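DATA SHEET
Item: assembly model
Revision: 1
Owner: S.N.
Input lines:
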Amino acid sequence: GENVEQHPSTLSVQEGDSAVIKCTYSDSASNYFPWYKQELGKRPQLIIDIRSNVGEKKDQRIAVTLNKTAKHFSLHITETQPEDSAVYFCAASITVSDMRFGAGTRLTVKP
Amino acid sequence: DVKVTQSSRYLVKRTGEKVFLECVQDMDHENMFWYRQDPGLGLRLIYFSYDVKMKEKGDIPEGYSVSREKKERFSLILESASTNQTSMYLCASNPPGTGGYTFGSGTRLTVV
């Protein structure tokens, strides 16, 4: 089955800096790659997603890039703010029912 | 907004007890999922269901079962709770043909 690896496990940045989280996946048939943000004590929430027919997608300060050849995708957060502090999970799936998640990255944005 | 509601936020049970975790969604979604979340391991799929009375094993189904008698409700059952089942349990749902999940708030289960 699909295996998703996520790095780094923790990331600390100064407010205003950029943050990058990287994930790799094992199954070349995977075609959907969402990112979830989980604030302390709250549920994971979808923040951005990308499908395999697109190489990059941007939503304000957040962008996701996908390299299908290398089987990796990344989350980029620019101009980080303290409220960006959370655990971020990447995921990959082929069908709607086989989504597999990375282990998560704890992002801390220091004021 | 789609709502996925888990009946308990915190639960403490004794070893050997039968435990029921309930999840209800209000948007007529076909697909429902149960995950457990552990530090350093991320979210691991226990079971999922794509229709009433249908269920499929995920990656870690041992020690668990599920029930889906109605479309809106998906129950996770720990047949005989053990301490290694202490974890955060997350329910999720989504409609067919799309990928994004809506998660419940989670149930933090402690087995003593």
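QC remark: Chain A touches chain B through 22 residues (CB under 8 Å).
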